[in-house]
Amino acid sequence: MKTYVNEIKENENVDSLFLVREKSSGVTKTGNPYLKLKLGDRSGEMEGRIWTSVEMFAQSFERDDFVHVKGKAVSFQEHLQLNITHLEKVGEEEILLSDFFPVAERDIDEMFKSLTEISQQVKNQYLKKLLCLFWEDEPFLERFKMAPASKWLHHTYLGGLLEHTLSLTQLVLKNAPHYDGLNMDLLLTASILHDLGKVEELSYKRSFDYSDEGRLLGHIILGVEKVEEKIRQLPEFPKDLSTLLKHLLLSHHGQYIWGSPKKPMTLEAVMLHYLDDMDAKINGIKQFLKAQVPDGAKWSAYHRMFEQAFYVPNLWEQMELTNNIEKNESEG
Amino acid sequence: MKTYVNEIKENENVDSLFLVREKSSGVTKTGNPYLKLKLGDRSGEMEGRIWTSVEMFAQSFERDDFVHVKGKAVSFQEHLQLNITHLEKVGEEEILLSDFFPVAERDIDEMFKSLTEISQQVKNQYLKKLLCLFWEDEPFLERFKMAPASKWLHHTYLGGLLEHTLSLTQLVLKNAPHYDGLNMDLLLTASILHDLGKVEELSYKRSFDYSDEGRLLGHIILGVEKVEEKIRQLPEFPKDLSTLLKHLLLSHHGQYIWGSPKKPMTLEAVMLHYLDDMDAKINGIKQFLKAQVPDGAKWSAYHRMFEQAFYVPNLWEQMELTNNIEKNESEG
Amino acid sequence: MKTYVNEIKENENVDSLFLVREKSSGVTKTGNPYLKLKLGDRSGEMEGRIWTSVEMFAQSFERDDFVHVKGKAVSFQEHLQLNITHLEKVGEEEILLSDFFPVAERDIDEMFKSLTEISQQVKNQYLKKLLCLFWEDEPFLERFKMAPASKWLHHTYLGGLLEHTLSLTQLVLKNAPHYDGLNMDLLLTASILHDLGKVEELSYKRSFDYSDEGRLLGHIILGVEKVEEKIRQLPEFPKDLSTLLKHLLLSHHGQYIWGSPKKPMTLEAVMLHYLDDMDAKINGIKQFLKAQVPDGAKWSAYHRMFEQAFYVPNLWEQMELTNNIEKNESEG
Amino acid sequence: MKTYVNEIKENENVDSLFLVREKSSGVTKTGNPYLKLKLGDRSGEMEGRIWTSVEMFAQSFERDDFVHVKGKAVSFQEHLQLNITHLEKVGEEEILLSDFFPVAERDIDEMFKSLTEISQQVKNQYLKKLLCLFWEDEPFLERFKMAPASKWLHHTYLGGLLEHTLSLTQLVLKNAPHYDGLNMDLLLTASILHDLGKVEELSYKRSFDYSDEGRLLGHIILGVEKVEEKIRQLPEFPKDLSTLLKHLLLSHHGQYIWGSPKKPMTLEAVMLHYLDDMDAKINGIKQFLKAQVPDGAKWSAYHRMFEQAFYVPNLWEQMELTNNIEKNESEG
Amino acid sequence: MKTYVNEIKENENVDSLFLVREKSSGVTKTGNPYLKLKLGDRSGEMEGRIWTSVEMFAQSFERDDFVHVKGKAVSFQEHLQLNITHLEKVGEEEILLSDFFPVAERDIDEMFKSLTEISQQVKNQYLKKLLCLFWEDEPFLERFKMAPASKWLHHTYLGGLLEHTLSLTQLVLKNAPHYDGLNMDLLLTASILHDLGKVEELSYKRSFDYSDEGRLLGHIILGVEKVEEKIRQLPEFPKDLSTLLKHLLLSHHGQYIWGSPKKPMTLEAVMLHYLDDMDAKINGIKQFLKAQVPDGAKWSAYHRMFEQAFYVPNLWEQMELTNNIEKNESEG
Amino acid sequence: MKTYVNEIKENENVDSLFLVREKSSGVTKTGNPYLKLKLGDRSGEMEGRIWTSVEMFAQSFERDDFVHVKGKAVSFQEHLQLNITHLEKVGEEEILLSDFFPVAERDIDEMFKSLTEISQQVKNQYLKKLLCLFWEDEPFLERFKMAPASKWLHHTYLGGLLEHTLSLTQLVLKNAPHYDGLNMDLLLTASILHDLGKVEELSYKRSFDYSDEGRLLGHIILGVEKVEEKIRQLPEFPKDLSTLLKHLLLSHHGQYIWGSPKKPMTLEAVMLHYLDDMDAKINGIKQFLKAQVPDGAKWSAYHRMFEQAFYVPNLWEQMELTNNIEKNESEG
Questions:
Q1: Contacts of B201 by beta carbon, 8 Å cutoff, 6+ apart
Q2: Residue contacts between A and F (CB atoms, under 8 Å)
Q3: What is the pLDDT along chain C (332 residues), one digit of tens a residue?
Q4: Which residue among B301, C167, C318, F168 is least enclosed by CB atoms within 10 Å?
Q5: Which chains touch B (3 or more CB pairs under 8 A)?
Q6: For C113-170, how does the pLDDT look when each residue is reduced to its tens digit (9 = 90+)?
Q7: Is there a contact between C321 and D125 if contact means CB atoms under 8 Å apart?
């Protein structure tokens, strides 16, 4: 059973799995070599030291490996440190990613089920078939379900991409019928596929970071290429429909300056952009408020990307006013 | 009965109400004075001339007056021109504004009824009372129902402000419950009141234009002042609630550069901004597509404010594809 | 008598008033609880510790309270620390704000007298009455005289708002007559009132910070509301005059991007903007030069907001040149 | 005596001096050559035709020449046209520039006298000598007194550069003593010299336009070079003083984006920038209001460079309120 | 043989091929229908009228068709107009595109030969094979050789894309060896392929305009897709190499604001961006100088996109100075 | 012989030259005064202490002096510290600048020889003479050869200005003949002189920093002034040629926002800007990659000025692919 870093106490013996975040070697004052490690899991990080059989252990694992560690927690210069007596590399298949990274609060399989159910509302035969190709692509699905939606800004947890995709798709379902003449099939398909390039843009099995492809090409292009790859398997897929769908993916950031090489040029593209931006921003602020508000404070810390702080209080709770908020939550 | 400018044919006698858009005097080659008028209604404009009793007529009306005109349409230099034999100023109460300006397609009273019904979902007693004060303010309501929402960009017709307000409020009803913890009462109240300053910002009884107050102070400030004026009549109204509500009004443009003196700092303010912007933009594009697309063209003209053109085709209709669009329309 | 933090020496006994800037609890290695405080006044901050009667003291005061403290200064890890034997909360009325915060160099009452004298040059009866309403509003005046003008940039000391207001009003007196046709009454009134919203925007009785209202609405809106509140008490006040005056307040930042929801649209608004900006910037640079120039350096540190450094030398003094500068100073 | 274009009536004989703004040749339907001219002076432009001795006249003058013309005004296609019977080129020395271009309202020699008087307040011996070199440079003075300050924006008339320079210098005299420690000598010298590069940047003897040097180098650089040229004649002139003075010239536009290669880095440079910008803008708006406000309108046309319209009314006049404005004018 | 529009004279009979740029119908004063055409070729446009057999002709061709026309040029309201007696639609294969649009000065086949020769310097086997696939794709080549490089800015003539591509590739050949460590193979391949998406972005067989795909997706994305399509035919093509190559295409505009979804992140991408931008700008200015400089003028008209004018003179020629310019030209 | 800071080991005796970067005094716990120094050379910095004859030593040197130091390296709080027994100030002429600052990899005299050889290709007699004046100005040349090209961004080492100048001039030689009609003489002269103002903008004999003149006027203006100074010695130098040359210097940053007071207005100025920017950026990235890439990393650190990271890998080396890169290097 996993022992989390933030549960470890002084003088306890530890026997659990960790991720090696840093690895370097040092020399004691008496001239003996030792290994300095930083061990992590989803709850935090701690220092580790290997004082014996140093050379043997040093060759048996690398930075970014998952390892099975035995040792004892001792206090050194006001911090806890793990004196490691045994360490063994373990494979990815032996660990639970969710032990090592934050994970979405909602159940991932449930969210995925909701998404595929909504996708069945798409009636256009070509778009329907296109979505099916994705739903049948197991290697893709495995990554799609676990990927975060962003490194910094919003949905930055395992399952975050799926959560954001489902949320946007539900928003589209609610908003598209509000206006005459918007094409629901196109909007649903585009909202389901809009960020799929993030599956390749972000790596998240060791830390949340951008892959080389992600940095050099970006999720917008990676997504368009992925969609194009599936469309090639559907020879009847109309060219114009493909162009329109790709336009929605390309333009969903809304402005050149936000990395879209095209501005939205159809009503569907305009709606997709606004709802995507709103969902990302609301989730991002909520995550930030959870993490960056001192107890009892009325204002969050300053948010660097948004260049502002956010106001926290829920007046209704504080003022015991008659209000409407329970109703909202039950519907949410 | 009103005869519209675009119905008048050569050599017809005309007997109808018009708005005097321009008025100046000229002298014929034979040295006689005459009056040159531009007469308008919602269908267009035409030239008018008064050749007799010039001085008497000249003193009886001014530019921007509504007038009852009798005369005959003749052709001059390839354009129709009205030779006026009789002209009489009429009061505002004798005309129908909707004869002179474009008007919303949806029935104004029906829209207003929908809005007040939604407003009854607000449970917080203070916000409820605040809305009631507006619903009881007949002079305000009269203007609120008829005002356009903008001079250039979106909902530029009589009843446009009401239509936009109702649309935004419905969007709030759909979207707020999608997220936990957003305050529906605050959002509903703010969406109903967000643009009410436009009642004073825009003048629309002669042409759609900005009032002096509108230009010098702007609808955001005018709206906050109007809300403050009503809140003063509710001495128990909590200060913090008033501040939050005004913050939503002030920040609903989202950015300094778009004229908001504050950026949205609460989740409700963030949502209000996105949905308001989306509704204005979608309506604006739809109006533009109606007016600025040559027959059969696939692209609109270049839109100066948005700095782009828009793509027109409805692929579904053209390609006779199975699609989902009827369903959307029936729900819309 | 006040002992300032920067006067306290090792091993001295201290008996004075301080502001509690931080308060938290700790446990000694031997398991005993203690209180950790940060105590401050206008000269700086120091650590404080309460080792005895911890629970009793802990309940008797909070962060941001003013307290009467007795104890002894000891050295710990190269810093001074106050071992507190006695601590008692005191009311705001028992302290001098100027013991705790920097204060304007010029006498506050004298500056206020100068300002009210200038205000008597306003001849327009409505503006004259409006100013009188402010001069008779004692609670407002108390705050107006003590408030700083800004948290970061300029006049960041008690009395700074008054100093800036007086300075701007004097500049208006000098500059308005330079041009034909500018309305001196409007300019004087607007310069006196232009920043009065800062009285509510900034809190300064514990530290210089923004109030909730200040953050959510901003001093421009708060000022316009305050002016509107007074104008309501003057039923004859002409609407157009009120609009013009409020326009000057709204537009005095000059650009959307600097937080003004309107750009200056009258000559008076244009002048007010330039002189306000010049006064704020010159004072801000002077404050910065006092604080951020190493001894003997010719260049200040880099100023983050202005994104540049400033040049310091006074060539005249260095080069013993014949010059004009004494004259300027005697007039200043 | 000069007959102005806007005074010429149909069928009058004309005998006066004009500027040839355009010159081209045509052929009548009967195959005879003729000359088409556009003749101008400060009051406007009119068409001119030469039907006889065409070849001889054609060789005797060019576009941009001043000419003495005799002929008769006739009406052609609703416009007046001058049928020229005699035309003779005249030299620049035979005309009055002010007959052909708008000229400052204030007397040019009087303004220049005021400026030189102020310049005597400069006490620093080096700056004093520098200014003297300019006052002794007759060819420079001749151009300096007549040049406009800008082609488009402000003081766009003969003598405009001098008027703006004097105005800025007077503003400096008023504002510098308001702050401690600003160097009046430096500020006076810089304000007198700040725009002198415009003498070479703008050509104005045929039309207001930019010279090649003006376009390729700009008045800021041309001015610095001119100042450097004079300083070379003063071998004792301190290097640091020269650098500071040139910094004020270089930075007076305030921002890179407005063409200054350096931002103001001293208090004097900051003040010079604000006052220069204020003076240019106030003059520019006043000129615009004179030219671009329809009779009785409350709003000017849209100003392209400032991207806004301006509000016109003088409430005091309209409302017959007690006011302060006469006093201002008498002082101005 | 083609008769060009600008060669047609009054009363001449015309028998030649034209492009129908506009087509509409009218009614004569006597009530007879007629057809109004605008006929064009590379030399200009003229009006055409069909007065007889109107219905028959009307059905035989459309706007944007090439037609064989017989008729007579007559003068109407000061313009020439073609009274058409015979008109017949012709296929694209019967016309020479270069009769209808401007064409590159350099021979297209020669330029293409130069480009393919340079491409043989690429040694990397994968990039070599990739280029071969393009050189073997006849339908692509046909379009690639004829396409313009832009609608507005630079190389706006048939063959312009090829000319720009060759020019950039030659620049790369010259500049890459100047720095250590830049990869010539990657740079050559990317410069050859960088704008190939313009083949589909621009339509040019009727007028120079953007295709639907071009507007909705843009040449950057279209180019990346085209490259991806070819790479799929090369199963061994290394993934990293493909990513790097696509990064050069994506980032060659250099900035988000100029439509690149990624900024250049490798030295090769940085160089490609600068040389591409320099070549486009120099060609664009040269084209502009040819078209937009009045005879003898020293300054071009104002260039809207570049927001400036350009200086024309060649001092060397004017001043008969000893100079270096012949040498340059001989090398060019 | 110089002992470099990074070569010094614990307990070694040191006898070498250093630069005094910081100097302050302290008092030991036993009450004795001592001196704290920071000593530096091109390899780094270390602490120094003088415990004896403190007063005598204190008076014998200042911060920024070069000194001859004898002492012993001891370990204190995990860092090395030099206990100094002897210290003596030495003159600038006794040290080698390159011992104290990083220096260009290429030999400075060789680079200078290449530059002067290229300058002989200039045939225009005036430009030729102008360059000669610079080549004969020994005090200028001494500084020109040693100056860095920038404090932060590119070529930040002794000889960097010369290296960048030579590189740009070689680029001009390669690129100018690629286009018809560019003036090689003008381009060569301008590229040689374009950054010469940096000789006075940057000080580099104690540390790389900006001089007062550099900060207040900038290298663009300083360079134009220097060129103007030389041109004055050539009375025949044509005015237009001087204006054009200065335009190239003024505009070489390309945009106002990058500090150029003029945008490039001739083809030569356009080319100079692009090549200068490309050379600075490529060198800057290469320097950054050397310094800011952790071993084995594929991505550099984030570059603050360029606001991005750079991609490092050389695929060819890693993948052992056939490639072209050796050829490039041999030519470079």
A1: B210, B211, B213, B214, B218, B219, B222
A2: 6
A3: 799 999 998 899 999 999 998 898 888 878 789 999 999 998 889 999 999 999 999 999 988 899 999 999 998 877 889 999 999 999 988 998 889 999 999 999 999 999 999 999 999 999 999 999 999 999 999 999 999 999 888 999 999 999 999 999 999 999 999 999 899 999 999 999 999 999 999 888 777 888 999 999 999 999 999 999 999 999 999 999 999 999 999 999 999 999 999 999 999 999 999 999 999 999 999 999 988 777 778 899 899 889 999 998 776 655 545 444 444 433 33
A4: C318
A5: A, C, D, E
A6: 999 999 999 999 999 999 999 999 999 999 999 999 998 889 999 999 999 999 999 9
A7: yes
Q: Do E123 and F175 touch (CB under 8 A)?
A: no
8 Å CB contact between D220 and D250: yes
DSSP structure string for B182-196: --HHHHHHHHHHTTT
Interface test with C, best of D175, D247, D266, D299 (most C CBs within 10 A): D175
Of E221, E240, E265, the CB nearest to A261: E221
Ranges of chain B whose pLDDT falls below 50: 320, 322-332
Whether B53 and B84 have beta carbons less than 8 Å apart is answered as no
- CB of E46 within 8 A of CB of E8? yes
User: Is there a contact between D309 and B215 if contact means CB atoms under 8 Å apart?
Assistant: yes
Give the three-state DSSP class for A204: coil
Instruction: Give CA C26 to chain center in angstroms.
Output: 35
- Computed from CA positions of residues F205, F206, F208, F213, in that sequence, does the dihedral angle turn out positive or negative? negative
Distance from C-alpha of D258 to C-alpha of C296, rounded to nearest angstrom: 33
Instruction: Determine the residue of chain A that is closest to C213 in CA distance.
Output: A311
Q: If you measure CA to CA, which chain F residue comes closest to E238?
A: F319
Contacts of E241 in chain F (CB under 8 A): 315, 319, 321
Chains A and F: 3 or more CB pairs within 8 Å of each other: yes
pLDDT tens-digit map of B64-90? 899 999 999 998 877 889 999 999 999
Residue E183 to residue F244, Cβ atoms within 8 A? no
Secondary structure (3-state) at F114: helix
ipTM, interface predicted TM-score of the complex: 0.88
CB F322 within 8 A of CB E125: yes
F298: closest chain A residue by CA? A212
Q: Interface of chain E against chain D, CB under 8 Å?
A: 298-299, 309, 311
CB-CB under 8 Å, F183 with E314: yes
Interchain proximity F212–C309, CB inside 8 Å: no
Asked if B265's CB is within 8 angstroms of A281's CB, the reply is no
Measured between CA atoms, how close is A141 to chain B, in angstroms? Answer: 25
DSSP string, F268-327: HHHHHHHHHHHHHHHHHHHHHHHHS--TT-SBPPPBTTTTB--B---HHHHHT---SHHH
- The alpha carbon of residue D257 and the mean position of all alpha carbons in its chain are separated, in whole angstroms, by 23
Percent helix, strand and coil across chain A, each rounded to 5?
45, 20, 35
Q: Where are the alpha helices (DSSP H) in chain B?
A: 54-60, 97-100, 108-119, 125-135, 138-146, 160-175, 184-193, 198-201, 212-231, 239-250, 267-291, 315-319, 325-331
Can you list the alpha helix ranges (DSSP code H) found in E16-101? 54-60, 97-100
What is the model's pLDDT at position C332? Answer: 32
Burial of D305 per CB tally in 10 Å (0-12, 13-18, 19+)? exposed
Cα distance between residue D112 and residue D306, in whole Å = 30
pLDDT block averages, 10 residues each, chain E of length 332 = 89 93 84 91 91 92 92 85 94 89 94 97 95 97 94 91 98 96 95 96 82 94 96 94 97 94 96 98 93 81 91 67 44 36
Q: DSSP string spanning F37-51? A: EEEEETTEEEEEEE-
> Between β-strands C66-76 and C13-27, what pairing exists: parallel, antiparallel or unpaired?
antiparallel
